[in-house]
Write a structure and sequence with these properties.
- It is built from 4 helices and 11 strands, in the order αββαββββαβαββββ.
- It folds into 2 domains: about 80 residues, Roll (Nuclear Transport Factor 2, Chain: A), CATH 3.10.450; about 90 residues, Nuclear Transport Factor 2, Chain: A (Roll).
- Helices cover about 25% and strands about 40% of the residues.
Length: about 240
């Protein structure tokens, strides 16, 4: 009797152990499918979106690849080609996803300036954090006059970056009634779950005036639970602020 009881207890323990392993395996698969292990939450409940690397123009990609060979402590992935500045050579401004090479990696957006000289050498001259919350909180500022400061030229023809379908649908609905400002999304920067979802996009903006004015803006779109969407904030990104 005692022997049978021990065998029965052993069988129960084995079943529970197998079930627990199966549950952990399922949780691991689900996490991998949703990508939740890659997300980074910043202040205000905003979650940085993990983008694919964008395809930079050939000369920009070459300069970027050369410059990061000298970089230690950070892995950089370009997600948007923002602006260029012709000097004795060229400065390229690129928004990158950054991950520190540490025991506990930290993710952030960094605005990176790569200088390429006339001999084909390249180096990173500036790398400043791009704080998303500075552009989604409060009343947006559309200061187009500052965009020409420092001779920076914003890039209008950006390579396409894949934006999640639900985010793109919300964006398209929100800009449908927008007059006087043509917005093209470059990249999805982050999301914020509220009673619905807030989406933050980095966009190229063309102000429809006699002389079209181009700029880079962070556009916040709110999508409610009924499928409606509206722009709640627009803030202009001045490249000169990241090259001081």
């Amino acid at each position: 009797m005692f022997k049978k009881s021990c065998m029965l207890l052993l069988a129960v323990i084995t079943v529970l152990a197998v079930s627990a392993c199966g549950t952990r395996d399922k949780e691991t698969v689900n996490a991998a499918e949703t990508g939740t292990e890659q997300s980074t939450t910043i202040s205000g409940g905003w979650e940085l979106y993990k983008n694919e690397a964008c395809a930079l123009p050939e000369e920009v990609q070459a300069a970027f690849d050369t410059s990061i060979k000298q970089l230690t402590g950070n892995d950089l992935k370009p997600v948007a080609y923002v602006a260029r500045q012709v000097v004795s050579g060229t400065n390229y401004m690129i928004l990158c996803e950054s991950e520190t090479v540490t025991a506990v990696p930290e993710q952030s957006y960094q605005m990176v300036v790569v200088y390429s000289d006339l001999q084909g050498n390249a180096e990173i001259t500036q790398m400043n954090e791009f704080d998303l919350t500075a552009y989604v909180d409060g009343v947006g500022e559309e200061n187009y006059a500052e965009m020409s400061a420092g001779g920076w030229e914003v890039i209008a023809d950006n390579p396409a970056v894949v934006i999640p379908q639900e985010a793109k649908e919300a964006f398209d609905k929100a800009v449908a009634e927008l007059d006087g400002n043509e917005l093209e999304p470059m990249v999805l920067l982050g999301t914020q779950v509220v009673a619905g979802t807030n989406y933050a996009f980095l966009c190229h903006s063309t102000l429809q005036t006699e002389e079209a004015i181009g700029s880079i803006q962070v556009v916040t779109v709110y999508a409610d639970l009924e499928g409606n969407a509206a722009i709640t904030n627009i803030s202009t990104v001045n490249p000169a602020d990241f090259n001081e």
